[in-house]
Amino acid sequence: MKTLALSFICLMISFTNCYSQAYESIFGDSITSWSIYTIGIDQANTDSLTTLFDTTFNNYNYKYVQKHYYYGLNGFIREDTNQGKAWFIADYSGATEKLIMNLNLSVGDTFYVNYYGNLIVDSVYYLNNKKHVQFNWIISAYDINNNYGSKPFTFIEGLGPNAGIIYQHTCCGDYLLCASKDNIQTYTDSAFNGSCSIYWVGINEFDNESKWKLAPNPFNEFTVLSVENEATILSKIIIYDIHGRVVKSIDNINSHQVKINKDQLQTGIYFFQLYTENKIIANGKMLVN
To answer: What is the pLDDT of residues 233-275, one digit of tens each?
Structure first.
């Protein structure tokens, strides 16, 4: 009887293994591309990353990914569709492989993101028959016309992270705008009127007084923001978090420079608007360690 029960259990395990389905691949049959808005310290722009060829090293099969412009990263990407995981390693000396997606996480599980620490899964759901693992972290993007997009950081079956594939190797936050497989668009972000290319700069050159310097940036305790034209008298600076909420305001500056203390600011990315009287002369971004 024991032998019969054991045989039945083994048969059920074999049946489950045979008929369990792998997750949908993030890759197309021949080519895959991602349009990613990637943020630097004082500007952000879009780069298109495209798979070029297959290669093998460290006993793993990778696809080589090439950037089209300055803003992205060349590198290698691989996936395990049985585990629902994907990894990316940048193509520069000393780079290490980073896990960029794990679809097997459950609500309450954590996932480490470089520069931000452990994020917590707050929901797992299916949309269009694709599994989504969503976290308690909002990613965002701005364009030169002050349009704003935001969404919860999410792993999406058949697509990858909605922050793009290089976010573990960049400092300040990425945002996936579009993706395609075999030259067929498979993902378009709902913000920015479906555009696959946007950009943002820290300096809006209305005139000479808008040229500014922020040092140090990133900073730990304080930083000093100054305008190039010392005749310019600053009146106010307003600092926003990535959700667009005002977190700090310094009024009555009455100088061409202002010291900004960390105070209650948590580690992360912040945006600011710089004023003379009631006129905005510059927009910018700062990074708090």
So the answer is: 999 998 887 656 778 999 999 999 999 999 989 888 888 888 8
Nearest by Cα to 111 from 151, 84, 81: 84
**Rounded distance between C-alpha atoms, residue 65 and residue 31, angstroms:** 10
Of 158, 137, 117, nearest to 32 by C-alpha is: 158
Rounded CA separation 287/289 (Å): 7
Clarify whether residues 196 and 209 are in a common domain. Answer: no
24 within some domain: no
**Nearest-angstrom CA–CA distance, 241 and 287:** 11
Distances (CA, A) of 63 to 78, 141, 155, 181: 6, 27, 19, 14
Task: Assign 194 to helix, strand or coil.
Answer: helix
Strand-pair partners of 121: 135
In 3-state terms, what secondary structure has residue 144?
coil
Task: Give the residue-averaged pLDDT of 170-194.
Answer: 89
Q: The domain containing residue 247 runs over which residues?
A: 202-288
Q: Are 194 and 232 members of one domain? A: no
Residues 138 and 271 in one domain: no
Q: How many domains are there within the chain?
A: 2
Q: Are residues 80 and 144 located together in one domain of the fold?
A: yes
Q: Summarize the chain as % helix, strand, coil (round to 5).
A: 10, 55, 35
Distances (CA, A) of 53 to 62, 64, 71, 87: 9, 6, 21, 16
Question: Is 22 inside a domain boundary?
Answer: no
- Cβ atoms of 161 and 139 within 8 Å: the answer is no
User: What is the spatial distance between Cα 218 and Cα 40, in angstroms, rounded to a whole number?
Assistant: 11
